Amino acid sequence: MADTLHHAKSVVGFAITQPLSFVYILIQNVLNWIFAPVPPPPTDKLRRPRIAVIGAGLTGVSSAAHCVGHGFDVKIFETRSREKGLGGIWSRVNSTSALQIHSIMFRFHPSVKWDTAYPQQQDIKKQIASVWKTYGLDKKTVFETPVTSIKKNASSGRWVINDNEQEHGSFDGIIAAVGSCGDPQMPRLPDHDKFNGPTYHSSELDGKDVEGKKILIIGGGASAVEALEFAVQNHAAEIDVLSRSDKWIIPRNVFVDVLLSLNVFGGETSFSWIPEWLLRKFFYRDLEDISPAKKGLYTDTPMVNSELFDQIRAGKARWLRGDIVNVQNEGIMFNHRAQGVPKGGPGHESLVRGDVIIMATGYKRPSLAFLPDNVFEKGYEPPNWYLQVFPPQDPTICATNSTYVNAIGTVGNYHIGIYTRFLLMFLVDPLSRPRESLMKLWIGFTRTLKKFAPTKAFDFFTYAELIYWYCFVSIINPFRWKWVPFIFFGLFRGLPLAIVEEEDHIRGLNGKAK
Ligand SMILES: Cc1cc2nc3c(=O)[nH]c(=O)nc-3n(C[C@H](O)[C@H](O)[C@H](O)COP(=O)(O)OP(=O)(O)OC[C@H]3O[C@@H](n4cnc5c(N)ncnc54)[C@H](O)[C@@H]3O)c2cc1C
Ligand SMILES: NC(=O)c1ccc[n+]([C@@H]2O[C@H](COP(=O)([O-])OP(=O)(O)OC[C@H]3O[C@@H](n4cnc5c(N)ncnc54)[C@H](OP(=O)(O)O)[C@@H]3O)[C@@H](O)[C@H]2O)c1
């Protein structure tokens, strides 16, 4: 009784002192209560379809949690150890790495509960591990097991991983959740060996001493911004970012970010100049020169940051556009280019001095080569797949967040559950499953709709376009209508399952999906 009273008092105290955080946590508890599938009891025997999930990052863990929460069995295969693999890329970056988008856009599973707007690496890892544990996935994960092949057993028609049916069993569906950021990419710069100081990758900055030093950051993406913030926080003397191509930067403001992702055409339109003009005038302001001159906002994933410009204005860092000529003992010979001059174009050279080089040059893309050869058919290779993730040759494979190139949206969000439920629907309800010719028709249709976009149809999309895709393919096939509450919200799966059994019965399949 005394404990309950004490707890109630502390909740009221929290609500009064931090009302916004209180409301945020309350909303997340409500979302969890309505939308998170109930974890199966430890003794519960899960049924088929059985799904192989490849990758234990947030996409793999969330997808697997959705499957078991709806009563279907899974096995997760992760190439790395538990320490480096569980949590995916978030287990391999700096402890100071943080979300640049608001965490409300990064609720990768309905049970996730953020207590801050911009959580850091440890919080993100913790949430991934918590979903993994809550849904009993610890007993269903094999670490240090890279998937190198998936093949169909000719007699059962089920998927076999790494030719090892004896150990792993067989599977009805595959979720390839290998992500888009693999090992660090560390290109050698011309004459790199001549440099007097150390060179680090931007993901390996924990414990590195930069105090009082001149820092040269190579690259102009989100990791360059993070490296810049790390250098500022650790009292570097001077910071120069050497960027060879321009990217749009948008404010760290949840309303602006959501608004920009609401472009349902998923590409440049004749109205794109409006947000671009507004960003230049009201966000870049005196730093308009850094904005891309010839690249539309809806062509490339923008960086989300509001502090970068303040650091530049305060003289703590410089953002230089141009090409690296070579590395010298004391720095980098750099060809500075003016706004709008393309990579490798004319400029003026000068030596940018530095003591430490940070390579913010990105990550190698994990391979999907373990998938069967036929899913890489010319013209229908990833990302040119049905809903971008289902190869038209076989919709029992779903490569969530692994075919993604560029977008305005978020990787760790609601769509992970939607894709998983589409896959489950295709597996349990044969009448809802798309045929290869129709999937290719949808891909062709989307290409035609986006033929004026500067990027290829599936190389850039927005979150609003993704939602439109889901609505379109749900409405187009009447056998999917009964699944709509399940696909979009994970609710009421009992009803469509009962109808499917009835349909199978009528079709003489005795309740067995064929
Ligand atoms: C520093 C940083 C910050 C980021 N911030 C944001 C952000 O704010 N917002 C946002 O939307 N995105 C952000 N991202 C993008 C990030 O990729 C996603 O947030 C998300 O972590 C992707 O999760 P994932 O599970 O899809 O992939 P990953 O986390 O990369 O996990 C994939 C897993 O698959 C495993 N794997 C790969 N191949 C195989 C194989 N053949 N067999 C078995 N296992 C395999 C890998 O070992 C890995 O553990 C950020 C990325 C970085 C690097
Ligand atoms: N907190 C966050 O939200 C956050 C933080 C970090 C990363 N991320 C995400 O992680 C992913 C990777 O981001 P990233 O910034 O690491 O990589 P990135 O977006 O691929 O950017 C790499 C940068 O390095 C440049 N580069 C590559 N090789 C080079 C070379 N040899 N010489 C000079 N420049 C070179 C690239 O230029 P070109 O473009 O010309 O090739 C590019 O500017 C993205 O999806 C990003 O959104 C997010």
From TrEMBL:
Keywords: FAD, Flavoprotein, Oxidoreductase
Annotated GO MF terms: flavin adenine dinucleotide binding; N,N-dimethylaniline monooxygenase activity; NADP binding
Matching Gene3D superfamilies: FAD/NAD(P)-binding domain
Co-factor(s): FAD
Residue ranges crossing the lipid bilayer per the database entry: none
Family membership noted in the UniProt record: Belongs to the FAD-binding monooxygenase family.
Name of the protein described by the UniProt record: FAD/NAD(P)-binding domain-containing protein
Organism placement in taxonomy: Eukaryota, Fungi, Dikarya, Ascomycota, Pezizomycotina
